[in-house]
TrEMBL record:
Residues 123-139 have a biased composition (Basic and acidic residues). InterPro entries: Cupin_1, RmlC-like_jellyroll, RmlC_Cupin_sf, Seed_Storage-Functional. This is Vicilin-like seed storage protein. PANTHER family: OS03G0336100 PROTEIN-RELATED, RMLC-LIKE CUPINS SUPERFAMILY PROTEIN. Pfam families: Cupin_1. Residues 116-150 are annotated as: Disordered.
Amino acid sequence: MLAPHVNPRATEYGVVLGGEGTVQVVFPNGSLAMSEVVRPGDVFWIPRYFPFCQVAARAGPFEFFGFTTSARRNRPQFLVGASSVLRTMLGPEIAAAFGAREKEFSKLVRAQREALIMPSSPGKEEEEHGKKGREKEESLPMVVEQAAAE
């Protein structure tokens, strides 16, 4: 998966060259705008300010070519991962905005070590195996508990 990101300067376009995957887009308010499976030959576009990610199918790699509508210095703002905008802004104010304690929020934001390409989530069989070997559950930060409740 390419880490969720937003482009504050331009519309982004993508052309699927090979494989299969899913493009997920959310509105700037966080609600789901689109989640579609794409295949070779498909073209997709993402409006400026709309967070999105591309997720490869489990069957194999997902290859696409992407470009933007701006010739200016144009870098996507990643929302999670080692190079995320949240890590850049980390502090008590951001934790308070999410209704979390600073220490727990910092731990949550720093938990993702990968910067841009995220590993796939475990399959159902792998997940079951992992649950059997786990000895204790860690307590989740308040923000995760709240998100799960919604």
